Every structure is written in structure tokens, then in C-alpha cells.
Backbone:
């Protein structure tokens, strides 16, 4: 009985990681570009791969205590490459920007 249990545990240890391994359909987008958009926003666009992408911008509040926060643009897909645009709130400043991949 104990031997069967050990074999079952060993088999599960091999099968579970294989089932969770990423496949080609789960690959992240590639060929991405990002940059500033207007005075306080950013854009992101990816043209290859699968999955989705969106713009991300870190902003700084213009009034005290000058909090930092992050805004995101809408999710897009590389099969229909459209700019995802994220903006800071009016009057706040863009600190950094990047692309968020899924």
C-alpha cells in the first residue's frame, strides 16, 4: 500500500508541472514599443506574439503629499495592434512608463 502511494505521489509530481507549463498559445506579446503620450501619459503597442498588453504609467500627484500612483490603459492584442494609452489625472505628472504584458 505504501509503495502504491509513493508511486502515485511521484507520478503527480511529474504530471502537475507539465500541465502547468506554458504553451505557445500562452506566450507573451513581443516586438513592443512604448513612449510618452501627450504631456502626462504613455502608450504601448505590440505587433507579434499572443496574449495581451496594455500601457502603464506611474504618476505623481501635483499637490501635497505628492502621492505616487499607477494608471493602466485598456488591454489590446497583437493580432490587432492598437495603441493602449494610459494617462495621469489632470495636473499630475508622468514619472515613468512601460508596457504590462499578460
Residues:
Amino acid at each position: 500500500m505504501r509503495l502504491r502511494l509513493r508511486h502515485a505521489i511521484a507520478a503527480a509530481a511529474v504530471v502537475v508541472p507539465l500541465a502547468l507549463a506554458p504553451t505557445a498559445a500562452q506566450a507573451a506579446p513581443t516586438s513592443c514599443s512604448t513612449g510618452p503620450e501627450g504631456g502626462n501619459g504613455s502608450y504601448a503597442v505590440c505587433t507579434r506574439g499572443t496574449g495581451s498588453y496594455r500601457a502603464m504609467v506611474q504618476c505623481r500627484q501635483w499637490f501635497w503629499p505628492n502621492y505616487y500612483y499607477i494608471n493602466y490603459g485598456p488591454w489590446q492584442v497583437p493580432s490587432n495592434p492598437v495603441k493602449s494609452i494610459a494617462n495621469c489625472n489632470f495636473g499630475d505628472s508622468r514619472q515613468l512608463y512601460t508596457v504590462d504584458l499578460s
Notes: The first strand starts at residue 30 and ends at 37. The chain has a mean pLDDT of 83.
